[in-house]
Description:
Blueprint: E1 2-3, E2 8-10, E3 22-26, H1 37-49, E4 53-59, H2 68-75, H3 78-88, E5 91-96, H4 106-111, E6 114-120, H5 127-137, E7 141-145, H6 163-177, H7 207-212, H8 230-244, H9 248-251, H10 264-268, H11 274-283, H12 288-311, H13 323-332, H14 343-347, H15 354-366, H16 371-384, H17 388-402, H18 409-417, H19 440-444, H20 449-458
Parallel strand pairs: 3-4, 3-6, 4-5, 6-7
Antiparallel strand pairs: 1-2, 2-7
This protein binds flavin-adenine dinucleotide.
Amino acid sequence: MERINERVVKLNDADERQGADYVLYWMQMYKRADHNHALNFAIEKANDLGLPLLVYEGLKFYYPWASDRLHTFILEGVEEKRDAFKDRGISYVFYLQKDDDSPKQTVKAVSEKAALVVTDDYPCFIIPEHNRAICEKSEVAVYAVDSNGIIPMSKFEKENYAAYTIRPKINKILDEYFVTFEEIEIGNKDAGIDADCPDTDCSADKIEHLVSECDIDHSVPASLIYKGGTENARERLRKFVEEILPTYDKTRNKCEIDGSSRLSSYLHFGFLSSIEAALAAREADAPEDAKDEFLEELIVRRELSFNFTKFNDKYDSLESLPDWARETMREHADDEREYTYTAKELENAETHDDLWNAAQREIVETGEMHNYVRMLWGKNVIAWTKTYEEAFDTLVHLNNKYGLDGRDPNSYAGILWCFGKHDRPWFERDVFGKMRYMTSNSTGKKFGSKQYIEWTKSLKDDPSLPATYEE
Ligand SMILES: Cc1cc2nc3c(=O)[nH]c(=O)nc-3n(C[C@H](O)[C@H](O)[C@H](O)COP(=O)(O)OP(=O)(O)OC[C@H]3O[C@@H](n4cnc5c(N)ncnc54)[C@H](O)[C@@H]3O)c2cc1C
């Protein structure tokens, strides 16, 4: 692996192909036609070689937790990208692989006429394995580009212990990166490339049928609240900066109202870049305190998660926890649990705790769970399962199955936070040991929990967000 610059690594030793037809950008996680460093790098390469650019995006049927919900959200962003790329003079192909009988090895096929391959350098879930596999299959140079956050992940040499250790490092260099994104135009605007790969028409009226034909989990339906794509992401961003950001510091923990950005699913699928969201917030007409709190979450907390999954290859296990947390778990492993629930009872929101059940209902019905109850949700599963490992596996499964924003560095860091990651030891108690403790009783008193519970009960008949804050 050779580092080309702070955002780009060359993953293999292969050369660029002479006499190729195009440069290939294999889009995996940054599902957007602008504000994308991987796209920019691919355009630069194409311009150097005088070639046109082909953007290839595929969706397979067998990735973990593939469901109607995740598929629909992704497909909702396809046709607008086709239009945006057409306007930019770039070819775009989207291939939906429906089942085992559908054509396979399509990335390899489209790479065969390419001078080189550019792809996304995303540090978790299935992407690192995809990138290893394409290097084995492809005969040309493969570059991975980091367009995950505002600061390139390579600016940090190792895993940071917590927010307080990464924050000063981020703040020291933030000005250099917190700037308008510069788009690069393609020189060779031959957008009519005939790729050796099927191209799926994902027009709005076709999505439901396409999804029903895929060999995926049909028990998790599409979200009726969150719709995929960059246009929907921008619409939500606009509402957030105009109507919610001015009071974000007061409303972000109020689960019963629409008081946070609800951008996590758009950020996860890369429909929206964090630089675009951060710039919109910085330029908004809102108090500095509110902006600072939002930017702390969007930049410091989010980039801490990316730092964690990039540098800790045990990010998907309790082994990535700090020593004090692992030790306290060893000491309290045999503590008696007052209540225990099976994974199915938890999934069905069948516990004695109304607030916990409401949080579980929120993620099942909408595809997201509010941050404030998400912490409590995770803590209570630790209290109600027989082992810490079972708690972790259950949380990862439920979060990643139902959350549109799941399978993200924030998913692993958020769940592990409940076990002490990025936190400090607290007073010792049963089951939790030195891990921070939260109860539904005290958490529920800090916001309108009764209204929140009622809202989650109404979601089946009236799938809509709660009202925004009114003074
Ligand atoms: C058990 C548990 C599981 C979690 N799972 C996920 C997940 O699957 N995906 C996910 O994106 N986040 C996850 N989080 C972090 C956080 O709950 C969500 O990012 C937040 O609820 C998203 O809502 P929002 O977009 O309205 O956030 P806002 O408050 O508007 O914040 C803006 C953005 O900042 C980032 N952010 C906010 N809070 C955090 C945080 N604590 N850590 C890291 N980044 C943050 C997110 O990208 C978010 O969209 C989890 C937290 C916990 C405790």
